[in-house]
Amino acid sequence: MSSDKVRSTKLKFKGEKTKKKRKRDDEEDAGGSSSRRRRRDQEDEESPDTWVLPEQANEIRGPTFIFHPSDPSPISINYDSTRGRIVLSSLDKDVKSEDLDGPPSILERTPADVSQVWVITRVAGSPTINIRTGVGEGKFISCDKHGIVSADREARGPQEEWTPVVFPDGMVAFQNVYENYLSVDEVAGGQLSLRGDSEEVGFKERFWVKIQSKYKKEAHEEEKKRKEGMSVDPNIDEASTNKIYQAWGAGKSVVSVDDKKALKKAKKEGRLAEALLDRRAKLKSDRFC
What we know:
Trefoil (Acidic Fibroblast Growth Factor, subunit A); 2 domains; seven-stranded antiparallel β-sheet; two-stranded antiparallel ribbon; 6 helices; 13 strands; 23% helix; globular; disordered N terminus; FRG1-like family-domain-containing protein
């Protein structure tokens, strides 16, 4: 048996700490049921940096890999920091020629370069996300009322907001503030680009999205805490009311009569959300002008 170790090809990011693996002392733990349970949990637990598919929209966060199952080769959404623009690139070019098994399946794809990784953030309590470049100066993907998609803005506003929609098969569509969808479009010369003016979701509007396992776990923990917090009658103050009840662009929340007084106080801190709603309404009205 060869003693050569296989070199890891996992993509690492600047500042990311490497976890050291520790051997478990199976001999000492063999007699305890809690030790066996702990050992089994460790075996089932994925590496925090493993790329996985999201099952719910709130899991889409952190470093994110977005690609499309185009034919004959799937393509990834990349950011060219030199030219400051979004580019669509074939994933098969990253496959090594000596790989006798051919390219991996579509669901086995993972990013091979930092230009393929985007950073997704969201405002607490909002279904919308912001998609920022993972390299360069940090630009946000935006879409104007004409459906033109770009990544050249350093500030975020309504045009930089996207609502992810996760389908039962695991694929994701991204809806913009104009209630249209991000899609792959063929332009002159057979080149592919992104558009944001599709009114319906079809093949061109469906993307595969991969996130890191630790962020999926983080989303589950937040949801669990939220449900536990709502199962009791908490003392409402400004901070908790803003976090639990304010919609931040998703519409008005309905609460009990007892909470109205506390909400009135909290809304003083929510003028930002109202301003965003006003801008969103104006943008939608401009669309039909």
